[in-house]
Amino acid sequence: MNSSKRSESDWQGLVSEFLVCKRKLDSKKEALLILSKELDTCQQERDQYKLMANQLREHHQGLKKKYRELIDGDPSLPPEKRNQVNLAQLLRNARERGKQLVEEVKELNQRLAEAQGDNKLLRMTITRQRLGDEEVGARHFPAHEREDLVHQLEKAGLQMEELENSVKALTDELEDVKAERGVFSEKAERLNLELNHILGGHETRIIDVDALCMENRYLHERFNQVQEEVNLLKSNIMKYKTALERRKSFKLSGKSNSSALTGVLSARQVQELLSEEQGCSLPATPQSISDLKSLATALLETIHEKNLVIQHQRHTNRILGNRVAELERKLKTLEVSGLWSLPENKAPRH
C-alpha cells in the first residue's frame, strides 16, 4: 500500500512538473514569435533607411558635381551660371582681402600707439627744455603733467607732516632723556654725599663712587698679582732650602762638590761649569753625564722661573696701564664737566 501511494504521489508530481514545463515552452514560443515579428520590422526599417541613404548620397553627389562645375568655371555653362561662378570667386577674394585689411589695421594701430608714445616723449622733452628758460609759466605745463605735479606735491606734504611728527616725538624723547639724566646725576651726588658721611670724609672733598670702584678693582688685581708672586717666592725658597740641605749632606758625606749639582745655580756657577777648559777636562764617566743632566735640568728650571717673573711683570705693567688709562678718563670727564682743571703756571717773581 505504501509503495502504491508513493508511486501515485510521484506520478502526480511528475505530471505537475510536465504541465509547468509545457507552460514555459508555450511562453517561450510566444516570445520567439514576437521576436521574429520585431526582427522582420527592423529588417524592413533597415531596408528603408538604406534606400533613403542611397538617395541622399546620390543627391549629395549631384550637388557636389554642380558646385565643382560652378567653381571650375566651365565655359560650356550658360551666362547665368557663369555669373554665379564670378560671384563665388569675388566672395572668396573679398574674404582674403578682408583678412589682409584686418592685419593692416592691427599694424596701423600698433604704429599709432608708437607714434603717440613718441609724441608724448617729445612733448615731455620740449617741456623740460622750456622749464630751463626764464619765461616759465603755467602755460608750459600740459594738463596731465599738472596733475602729476599736484599728486607729487600732496605726497611731499604728507611726508613733511610725518617728518614733523617724527621730529616732535624725537624732541620729546630727548627731553625725557635729559630729565632722566638730571635725576640720575642728582641721585649720584646724593649717594656720594651719603657715602662721604658714612666714611667720615671731609665735607669739601666728596668721595666719588666711581673712583672707589675703580680703586677697588685695581687693588683686587694687585692683590691677585701679589699672591702669585708670593707663591713663586715660596716655591723658590723651598727649592733653595732643598739645595742647601743637599749641599750639607754632600759635605758631611765627604763627596766632591762637582757631583752636588742642585736645581738652583747662579750665573757665575753656570759660567764656570760651561767654561771651555773645564768642559774639555770632564771625563766621559756616568758621574759626569749625570752632572751634565743635573746642570741641564737646573738651567731649564732657572729659565722657567725667569719666564714666570717676566710674565708677572708684564701682568703688573698691564694692570698699571689700565689704571693710568682709567685715571686719565676720569680726569678728562672731570675737566669736561668743569669740576677740575689743571693749575695755571704762576709767573716767576723777580
Considering the chains and any ligands shown, give keywords for the structure:
single chain, 350 residues, mainly alpha
What does this structure look like?
With 350 residues, this protein is an all-alpha fold. Among the domains are: 141-207; 208-337. It is 83% helix and 0% strand. α4 packs antiparallel against α7. It starts with a helix and ends in a 13-residue tail after the last helix. Residues 133-139, 255-261, 276-280 and 345-350 have low confidence and may be disordered. Keywords: Coiled coil. InterPro entries: CC149.
Give a short synopsis of this structure.
It contains 7 helices and no strands. It is mostly helical and 350 residues long.
By DSSP (H or I, 4+ residues per run), the number of helices equals: 7
Alpha carbon gap, first and last residue: 183 Å
**DSSP summary, beta strand count:** 0
* Structural class by SSE content: mainly alpha
Could you list the spans in which at least 5 consecutive residues all have pLDDT below 50? 133-139, 255-261, 276-280, 345-350
Instruction: Give the CA-based shape.
Output: elongated
- What is the CA-based Rg, rounded? 64 Å
Q: For the residues shown, what is the average pLDDT?
A: 75
Sheet with the most strands, sense and barrel status: none
Could you tell me the strand content as a percent range? under 5%
Coiled coil: 25-59, 91-194
Family: Belongs to the CCDC149 family.
Protein name: Coiled-coil domain containing 149a
InterPro entries: CC149
